[in-house]
Amino acid sequence: MCNINLPRTNYHLQEDNPMEQLFWGKIPLERATSFFFYRKGSDFRQILHQLKYGGRKELGAIMGRYMASELLPSGFFKGIDVIIPVPLHKKKQQLRGYNQSEWIVRGIAAVTGIPVNTESVIRKKNTETQTRKSTFERWENVDGIFELRSSEHLQGKHVLVVDDVLTTGATTVACVSALMEVQGIRISILTLAVAE
Q: Where is the Phosphoribosyltransferase domain positioned along the sequence (predicted)?
């Protein structure tokens, strides 16, 4: 019942949707969507808070499966070769015990069968939380924080970058910018939620 009432964006059904428009002029994209709206005080906000800060990593896999099951018939995953979750810095991951985006990706991969890659991009700088930062501060905070590693197997591939919540898009753009060094790479983006 809870899943039925969560606020969906249905952006995957719209060409040039607001999520894609957010990245125009910043990074080249095949397609992009966010699945749920993230609103203050909503039930979804509580789910996300439990996933990120409450130790409920399995919620990521559950939500990833819900999302993938609904997106699959639309053809959103067509042609995707590999999924890369936006990495956390190793200190933050040790503190939290897991990367919530990785758990979302586990759910997506269980439904789609698309392989997951957690090795090719690392987060080399441990940044402060973006939560209370202005748009400019968010972009400044994530500049150059990701590094590309072992990229030869990504050449010519269509990569889906997955994160939990999209606000300004700064973190996602920083991650994709590191991937753009790979020859012939094509990028799509999927986030569990987008802030309204």
A: 124-192
| Residue indicated by tokens 């699945």 | 35
Q: What tokens were used for 42? A: 């909503």
Domain regions of the chain by residue span: 9-195
Contact residues for 58 (Cβ-Cβ < 8 A; gap 6+): 103
Q: What is the CATH number of domain 9-195?
A: 3.40.50
- Residues 46-94 have pLDDT tens digits of 888 899 889 999 999 999 999 999 999 999 999 999 999 999 988 888 8
Distance CA 188, CA 74 (A): 15
The token pair at 50 is 């439990």
Q: Are 92 and 126 in contact (CB under 8 A)?
A: yes
